[in-house]
Amino acid sequence: EDMMLAGRDINYVIGVFTMTATWVGGGYINGTTEAVIKNGLVWTQAPFCYAISLALGGFFFAKKMRKRKFVTMLDPLQLKYGERLGALFYIPAFSGEILWSASILAALGTSLRVICGLTDTVSIIVSACIAMTYTLFGGLYSVAFTDIFQLFCIFIGLIFSIPFMLQSEHVTIPLKTMNVTMFPDKDYSPFLGRVQGRDAGVWVDYAIMMIFGGIPWQAYFQRVLSARSPKVAQVLSFFGAFGCFSAAIPSVIIGWITMNTDWMATDLKQSLVKDDYKLAVPLALLYLTHPAVAFIGLGAVSAAVMSSTDSSILGVSTMFTRNVFNKVFMPKASDKVTMWFLRGTVFINTIIAMLIAIFVKSVYGLYLICSDLVFILLFPHLVLVAHFPKRTNKYGMIAGFGLAFFLRVLAGEPVLKYNAVLKYPYYQEPTEDSYGVQKFPFRILCMLINLITTIAVSYLTKKLIKKRPNLDVLETEKQNDYEQMMMKELKA
Predict the structure, then answer these.
(1) Per residue in 381-410, pLDDT tens?
(2) What pLDDT is attached to residue 491?
(3) Phi then psi for 352, rounded to 5 degrees?
(4) Where is 99: in which H helix or E strand?
(5) Residues 355, 367, 451, 23: what is their CA dihedral angle, to the nearest 10 degrees?
(6) Residue 331 CB coordination number (10 Å)
(7) What is this structure's pTM?
(8) What is the rounded distance in angstroms from the CA atom of residue 78 to the CA atom of residue 63?
(9) What is the arithmetic mean of pLDDT over 465-487?
(10) Residue 417: burial class (beta carbons within 10 Å; 0-12, 13-18, 19+)
């Protein structure tokens, strides 16, 4: 546990820094600016949604999970559903964490390519190797302490660069939200953006997915479970929420500056198109500031990448080592064997994330898919086992998980280049140039179907097994370790 959870000795200060730095990655910084430029502030959902997510995690999960001294977020799922069925939840958790790491590394690759002229491959490999090295030898200790330095670099680097951008002769001062240079033909504020009636379902779907789907991530629970006490775990979640929201403000301002820049007059000599929006931060640093300032700003982006990559890689490796290797395959493995297996898993997962970042073009799109799988498949069961363990059993879990996954697959996915088989209300039919789009908040529906099906099937099978005990092939009526723990808590 020392390597996985830093001896459960993380205090308030270190906890807040490492919690904030974990969420504020290169994808978070570049993605926030991109969202502001592409669709306006109203569609830049990540900053406030993830801040709410951290706060809700603190209210409903942090204290409870830390009090029970779990090591990973999959521990209660395995205690309730058994080692093998519980390990099934590692699949969406692994996919989300590893693709999150890959998307962050890819974001750094584009930044270094623009400012330093390095190839994406070189920058991704160097960054991944640095993060992997100190994670291998220090575990959560080194990750947490480097997060303090990295978060300092993020805030100082980006905030320091903004005044220099505003002094550029190519930026319109004061900044305007209407009729800005890049969008002269719009009859509404392109900076603020707008949500039209036909897109309201999409906005709500993504907002709820980010808020509640942002909770079941090992990178978050690793900080919670490493806290010195349940109270510390809860407090660092609240302050982490504030830090996460605050860290997005410089990115929003850079997006606003970018929208008020005459890019044709800069050395870029061309207007920004949609493909350039993801490069807005490095382009603003390169063409609107002095080279020395651009270097400092690049350091901020690089620090953001390191702070999230190491956390994600350690988190996903911890889950595999404990919940798959220890619980399923090698329950009698010694601490020494487990530690070396964890280090080997860190190495392998870093290589996987690095290869995906180098060779897959739509890494961020894949990350979004895995994020909604975490929300649809994992979140309902984490809620049930943490708060309503008697409302679920193995039969309900299999039914809910399977049905929700099936419905999500049928809903189609433009990133994977296939159209919907099951078309929900307000479905936008595909055209020659685009795939179909679900306008209905189908992710929320799939999650609720998972939750309701699990509860309903669990209730019915309990009634049936009470009358016909011989039908209980999964032995759900035997009081498991998790229920025993709950009974002890109630008695205490």
Answers:
(1) 999 999 998 899 999 999 999 999 999 999
(2) 45
(3) -60, -50
(4) helix 90-116
(5) 100
(6) 9
(7) 0.87
(8) 19
(9) 69
(10) exposed
